[in-house]
Task: structure prediction
Amino acid sequence: MAAITLLEAIRQGLWEEMERDKDVFLLGEDIGVYGGAFKVTEGFIDKFGAERVIDTPISETAIVGAACGAAMMGMRPVAEMQFIDFISCCFDMLTNYAAKSRYRQGIGIPIVVRGPSGGGVHAGPFHSQNVESFFLNTPGLKMVEPSTPYDAKGLIKAAIRDDDPVLFFEHKLLYRNPKIKQEVPADDYIVPIGKAAVRREGKDLSVITYGAMVYTALDAAERLQQEGIDVEVIDLRTLQPFDREAVSETVKKTSKVIILHEATKTGGMAGELTAVINEEVFEYLDGPVTRVTSIDTPVPYAPPLEEFFLPQVDDLLKAARSLAAY
Amino acid sequence: MEPEKNLQLEMLFYMRLTRALEDRLDNLLKQGKVVGGLFRSLGQEATAVGSAMALDKKHEDVISPLTRDLGAMLVMGAKPREVFAQYLARGTSPARGRDQNLHFTDLKRGFIGTISPLGTMIAVMNGVVLAARMQGKKTVGMVYIGDGGTSTGAFHEAANFAAVQNLPLVIVAENNGYAYSTPTTKQMRILNLADRAKAYGIPSEIVDGNDVLAVYKSAERAVARSRDGGGPSLIEAKSFRMRGHAAHDNQSYVPKELLDQWRKRDPIGALEKTLKQQDTAIEAEIEKITERVETLLADDLKWADGQPLPRPEDADGEVYASEAAGVLTR
Result:
């Protein structure tokens, strides 16, 4: 069995779900004939036809609106955002329709809205964002971000089968990264939504992270090991609802925690995780819960600016040494 | 050819039911029992009733009405008791106190409650009829939008999407003169909402929204076209909002002459006049409708007023399908 990229894993997951369930269909911009801007859906239209692989106008509201309506009729739509940044164009549809439907009218909206997220590719302010904190404050949505091919395939399948709306973030830096290629099982499997993974066991300090930052954390952990600091790395995988148990467990184990993410700092996942740690496992802490994130600016374009903006291994090392010294 | 007399009497029943129901809601509001605002459709009953009457249950047709389309909801089978319970925020109302007025849904009966951001429901209805088509059904969707709502980005995106996908969707654009306090002249530079349809390459008609038969016939044409694969269309129903945006609004911004002029064109009075011209012995039938409306509303109001408010703790839960790992569980 050949090792596959994260992109190929998502592609396989979508393909197998469409084969398994005739109610699953795709819609988005340039996803059919062209196969998608990143070619995630290349070849799908030939296999499944234009009725199930719908090329749409540039209309994120219409795309997600159609997905919502179809979901109410028992379908399982998967909508692609060409870049996840454009999800802001259908904010109303997601936050006011999809997220509230079950609560206000007892009707679930089982849609997946997926797309490439994240920076590090010098794509500027509108093709580099991490959008999770826009939606973290909206009850009713789920959010997932895989960091490995195995998880990507298992989570996209779980997202499609989930009875609630799931936002599925695919870090574009990981799409074709050969270093993270993995063999994935040929058999049908899912990775459950809501469960974190321990990527590295450690006893001195925990880094809770997700997406491409998992690899930043693992790189830093190797360096810190040489300095005698044994780091545990937790990959959340699901951002909403996140795995409170796994968060509590690692805090209980190491008593020191850094939350690392690529999204900007204020009002982000790290703040929310800090609050939950404070509420649930405060007594176990031996140092301040520490945030390592991007700075509070739009994502800049020029390489030196973007590098400054994004959390780097060195930023994490600095924070970890300081926390470890407590 | 005019629709048969029984159909016209049914239209009259639903229009009278709409008005009488809203009259009672007005009273309940004055008694302090209505929770929140009351958005009346006074003067616009013909558009809601006439359009929805053109739909066919056999094909599982479905509407998404605005808050001022009570008549269309009733035609599709919403019960007055449900509407009362909604406005009274009772725990046994269709939305169980979680959402208000006409914001409730029953796909079996064929209505999907609106949400307050306008234009959104056209996009959602696109998905409903797209799915129905994929499922091999001949379902037609009918979605309502006001003059103000046609200015939204969602309206544009959804109308264009429906056109490109050739979806079986009828957009009923209700031009009632004002969006809250803003007249249509400040909403758009074009004269007619129907003119917007040209930009999407879809057919449109302009009808007198106070003439229930005209609305019905126009809707019938649009529904038939959609059913036969002819795609979406837009009907502009010209009418007038005879009350403020909601009960708190005395609509002081509306010229008195305009109200006087439209008052003479009351849609219910117009239909009764037509019926009487056709059949001088119709009085007895109309009297029966009055009795039917009164009995129904009295029973349903009694039921609704006796219903409990929701339990406070019912605010929590059912945000996710399974809240086992949910963030809201306390």
Residues 2 and 236 of chain A are 27 Å apart (CA to CA).
